[in-house]
Amino acid sequence: RLGWDSDNLIITQLAEQLQDCGIQALTIHGRTRSQMYTGQADWSLIREVKRNPRIHIPIIGNGDIDSPESARRAFDDYGVDAVMIGRATFGRPWIFQDIREGRDTLTLDEKIDVLKEQLRINVERIDEYRGILHTRRHLAASPIFKGIPDFKQTRIAMLRADTVEALTDILEECRHRLKAVEEHHEE
Hints:
Elements lengths: L10 H11 L4 E4 L14 H8 L7 E4 L5 H11 L3 E3 L10 H7 L6 H18 L2 H13 L11 H9 L3 H23 L1
Helix pairs in contact: 1-2, 3-4, 5-6, 5-8, 6-7
C-alpha cells in the first residue's frame, strides 16, 4: 500500500529500505490502508517509486486493473514491470488471457464453460462442500450476468446452491437467458 492514510504516504522511502534489506521485487497497491478498497487507486506514487534511480528491483503495480486497457495504461503511463490483478478476477478468470491478448477473447458460451470448469476444479482439489463455497461467490460476482433481466433471484440461488449439480444447472439457465437477451438485441 502507499501508506497508512493520506497523511502517511511512506512508500517512496519504504521501497528503498525494502530493497536495501534484500527483497527481489515489490508489489505496490495504489491505495492507503485506511482507504481499504474504496476510491480510485492512485498510481502516481507507484510511478515515483519506479522512476527512482536507486530502485533496480521489479515494481509490480496493483489497484483497479480490470481490463486490457487499464493494464496497458499501467505499463505505458506508470512504467511498472508487471501488474497484479485482484478483485477483477472474481467471476472472470479469463481476464488474464484478455489482458495478454489486449481484447475480449472468449465468447459467452466459452465464458460459461470456463466458470463450470472452475467449479469442477475447485471441487476436485478441495472437496464438494468447500469447493462450492469458494466458487459460488466468484460465480455470483461475474460481470457476464449483468445482461440478465431480474437476475437478483438467480444470484441468490447461486449463493445458496450446495451441490455441483445445482450450480451447473444455474449456469446453464444463465447461458440460455443470456442467449435470449443476445437474440433479442439482434432483432
